[in-house]
Amino acid sequence: MALTTLDPITALIVIDLQSGLMGWPFAHPIGDIVARAAALGAAFRRHGLPVALVNVDGSSPGRTEQAPRHGNLIGNLIGNPFGGPLPDGWTDLIPELDRQPGDIVVTKRTRGAFASTDLESLLRAGGVTQVVIVGVATAGGVESTARQAYEAGFNVTLAIDAMTDARPHAHAYSIEHVFPRLGETGSTQAIIDLVERTNAHELA
């Protein structure tokens, strides 16, 4: 669904743009994704809209009597698929996001940012009714968060040029077939322009 509107209180959710994932072989240049996410963050903050920065630390627990057949997601990325501590700084949010004192910061241990975190309650406390989601990976953390936001009753928008995945086919499938069922999609610049128009009276 094409981009049409933003609610008066819309939050930006940035998924897993953290130090440990910057070397992952994504399908699109990660520097471009980071720059667009940062531009969205700056636009949202400029108008006093909430920004939620999400990182991932480990994987959700599974069966305890046996190790996962193929290891866990994070462990596979760092070359230690069956557990163990993450490298120092692995979960650190990248500095390009320009974290501010008023930002919401959430650490998740599942793919989606709403499961087993206080993100939903923090957004609702701020009167948020719509979310814009960016980050990595498109078919992982981004899609899972979008699904959870939709199920929780938030209006959902996805900045499709501010996300990527290591699997080009999965990235394309999410954008072409999944996201249109969950909400609206648009480019980073289109969303920034809409933020500016929606909140123009604040700068008058």
Keywords:
alpha/beta; 204 residues; single chain; 36% helix; 6 strands; 7 helices; six-stranded parallel sheet; Rossmann fold
Fold and architecture overview:
Strand 1 (10-15), helix 1 (30-46) and strand 2 (51-56) form a beta-alpha-beta unit. The relative contact order is 0.23. Strands 3-2-1-4-5-6 form a 6-stranded parallel beta sheet, with helices on both faces. Helix 1 (30-46) packs parallel to helix 6 (188-198). It is globular, with a radius of gyration of 17 Å. It is of the alpha/beta class and 204 residues long. The chain is built from 7 helices and 6 strands. The longest helix has 17 residues, at 30-46.
Gyration radius, rounded: 17 Å
Overall CATH architecture:
3-Layer(aba) Sandwich
Give the spatial strand order of the biggest sheet: 3-2-1-4-5-6
The name of the CATH superfamily reads Isochorismatase-like
Judged by helices, strands and strand pairing, the structural class is: alpha/beta
H/E series, N to C? EHEHEHEHEHEHH
Give the integer mean of the pLDDT values. Answer: 89
CATH class: Alpha Beta
Taking the sheet with the most strands, its summary is: 6 strands, parallel
- The name CATH uses for the topology is Rossmann fold
Give the helix proportion (percent range).
25-40%
Number of H/I helices: 7
Distance between the termini: 31 Å
Tell me the count of domains. Answer: 1
Shape: globular
Using DSSP, what is the number of strands?
A: 6
Taking pLDDT < 50 over at least 5 consecutive residues as the criterion, the unreliable ranges are: 63-71, 76-82
Keywords: Hydrolase
Pfam family, one: Isochorismatase
Protein name: Nicotinamidase-related amidase
InterPro entries: Isochorismatase-like_dom, Isochorismatase-like_hydrls, Isochorismatase-like_sf
